[in-house]
Amino acid sequence: MNDDARGSTRPGESPDRATRRVAFVDSGLGLVAYADALLSLRPDLGLVLSMDPDHMPYGPRTPDEVCELILRSARSALEHEPDAVVVACNTASVHGLAALRAELEPAVPVIGTVPAIRPAAAGGGPVAVWATAATAASDYLRGLVDAFAVDVETHVVAAHGLAEAIESADTTAVDAAIGEAAALTPAGVRGLVLGCTHYGLVEDRIAGAVGADVSIFDSPVAVARQTLRRIGLDPHPEGPRRGVEAVLLSGRPGSLPASVGAYPAGERLLREPAQRHTLSS
User: Fold this and answer.
1) Residue 239 burial class via C-beta count within 10 angstroms: exposed 0-12, middle 13-18, buried 19 and up
2) Which of 41, 66, 88, 89 is catalytic?
3) What angle do CA 43, 44, 50 make, to 5 degrees?
4) What would the pLDDT profile of 96-132 be if each residue is shown by its tens digit?
């Protein structure tokens, strides 16, 4: 897409609807790294962040509950006319992606997230996958391993409490959960897949725990590139900066939680010019 086409209105839009927007939905801070990755490629995009603090975490909930909750979060974001919706949660992608696509596409593309098992396995094993307890025990994760790493030694590790510690920005609890997961990870692992969208926010701490010889695989950049493809945009990192235009908390207009500022990706979101929200306590 050429520079003249960037920011042009789409058929049926009002003239003031020139800003392209993407909505991210998740129960909590898992969407932060994904929103940050998209802005690194297209800083001129407006972002709608739809979180669900009333019902998080999604892991212990039934598939039907997760599906309904993620549908509600996406519907609340539609008021802001997003060009696409990104489901920045592995659990929600498993249980709600098909329903979201059936409801929103083709008018609004829906992009899901999946642990980066395929690229990790391509580098050879052994490979470890850290995930929430619910995901670690799921048929979904086992299916991904069977599909993309059937010939590679793969170890699934439940990182108990790590997502919750990240959500609350409790560094003591984060380090304890990482230490426990690292102790459960077999020696000799060459690749580590982050199987929860929260985990990338503390990738540096995870890397320090597992050692420099272990390559870490996450998916925010891949999801960002797929999102741009779905809405017909090329990367343009030098564009004018917009950023977060709206934050929704279980469907209500709100503010980013204070814990977001504990992470570099969150700090970058808060620095975006379009961010109009004060931090909630």
Assistant:
1) middle
2) 89
3) 80
4) 999 999 999 999 999 999 999 999 999 888 999 999 9
As a whole number of angstroms, the distance between CA 254 and CA 248 comes to: 5
**Can you tell me the distance from the alpha carbon of 97 to that of 102, in angstroms, rounded to the nearest whole number?**
9
Q: What are the structural domains, with CATH classification, of the chain?
A: 21-113+221-271 (3.40.50.1860), 117-218 (3.40.50.1860)
- Asked if residues 123 and 229 have their Cβ atoms less than 8 Å apart, the reply is no
* Kind plus residue range of the DSSP H or E element containing 93: helix 90-104
Q: Which residue is catalytic, options 165, 177, 196, 209? A: 196
At 216, list the tokens.
């870490």
The owner of tokens 């519907």 is 75
Instruction: Find all residues with CB under 8 Å of 59, minimum gap 6, and list them.
Output: 91, 132, 133, 134, 135, 163
Rounded Cα distance between 258 and 237, Å, is: 27
* Cα distances (angstroms) measured from residue 273 to each of 2, 37, 41: 24, 17, 16
Residue 89: name the closest of 178, 189, 200 by CA.
200
127-131 vs 110-111, strand pairing mode: unpaired
67 is catalytic: no
Q: Which residues contact 208 (CB under 8 A, 6 or more apart)?
A: none
Do 130 and 194 contact (CB within 8 A), yes or no? Answer: yes
Residue 232 CA: distances (Å) to CA of 46, 226, 228, 242: 15, 10, 6, 19
What are the angstrom distances between the C-alpha of 76 and each of 37, 50, 71, 276?
23, 8, 9, 19
Contact 83, 226 (CB under 8 A): no
Residue range 2-23, pLDDT digits in tens = 333 333 333 333 334 467 999 9
Does the structure show a pLDDT above 50 at 38? yes
